[in-house]
Amino acid sequence: MRPAAAAAASVLQAPRRALGGVSLVGARCASSSSSSSVAAAATSYDHVSFVKEIAVTDPPEHLNSLLNVLHARGEKIVSPGAKRGLIPLVVPLSESPQGNLTSLLRWPTAPSGMEMPVVEVRSHGLWLLAKNVNQYIHRILVEADSRAESGDDLWSAVREDLWSAVGEAGPNIYKRGDLKESQTADLDVYLLKKVGLFPDILERKASRHLEKGDSVSALITSEFYTRDQFPGFGRPFVFNSEVQKRIGRTSEAKESARVALKSPWWTLGCRYEGGS
């Protein structure tokens, strides 16, 4: 086993325990948003040192900012060593009120220059949230901006908390108000053009084409999804197989499914039962 793989697989298997965090409403009722940021920042050193010393890779530059943002939106910051029952390659960051874990993924044989993806741990594996920390922060800020601009008072308050939490990194990642200035009516279109590619958005785009009866555009989108946009993940091929099957291209659907099964089962984004 390579040194990096051995280090990633040897992470502590300690019981999961929350280190802090409050609900979304609780975050608004706290004495100040800055106190929430300080509480999250107090735990972030554990994650940075864990990534550096245990995962044996460079920590994302704005990992502390992401932890603060996750905390500000109501997630509990959890120990990076709270990995019992989890895939050994993940580094837990926070837990949502629904019990989902936002984590970093440490590929054991990541290509040079590839940043640690942000993933969500689900019952059947991992779901890719963003290719890197900056991209995920960017999306969170844009979506908060969108909801706040719609006139939602709660989201206006949440947006202020998020901007306070992200700190100095914020303006370098997203120019506040840029979504409105762009006059882009469709949030998904803005995210794809200005922030990056996201699995859920590409799948939603293809599904909408199918709902409109535009099978050609759906195929183009699902095929684009598989073009090495998300290295190491089998999910794009699973989804492409589903699209191919829905429009009656059975042989193409089977071929895409075969390609998907060459990836780790926990990257498929669906329940998988291996045959004997």
Structure overview:
A hairpin with a 2-residue loop joins strand 5 and strand 6. This protein is 51% helix and 10% strand. It has 276 residues and is α+β, with helices and mostly antiparallel strands. The protein folds into 2 domains: 133 residues, no CATH class; 69 residues, Serine Threonine Protein Phosphatase 5, Tetratricopeptide repeat. The longest helix has 21 residues.
Question: How is the topology of this model organized?
Answer:
Elements: H1 3-9, E1 18-20, H2 24-29, H3 33-53, H4 63-72, E2 76-78, E3 90-95, E4 101-105, E5 118-122, E6 125-130, H5 133-149, H6 153-166, H7 169-173, H8 178-182, H9 187-195, H10 199-211, H11 215-225, H12 235-246, H13 250-260
Antiparallel strand pairs: 1-2, 2-3, 3-4, 4-5, 5-6
Helix pairs in contact: 3-4, 3-6, 4-5, 4-6, 5-6, 10-11, 10-12, 11-12, 12-13
Instruction: Report the order of strands and helices.
Output: HEHHHEEEEEHHHHHHHHH
Overall, the morphology is globular
Which regions are unreliable across 5 or more consecutive residues at pLDDT < 50? 1-44
**What is the averaged pLDDT score?**
83
Strand content: 5-15%
Q: How is the biggest beta sheet arranged?
A: 6 strands, antiparallel
Number of discrete domains: 2
Number of strands: 6
Structural class: alpha+beta
Summed up, the helix count is 13
Head-to-tail CA distance between termini: 26 Å
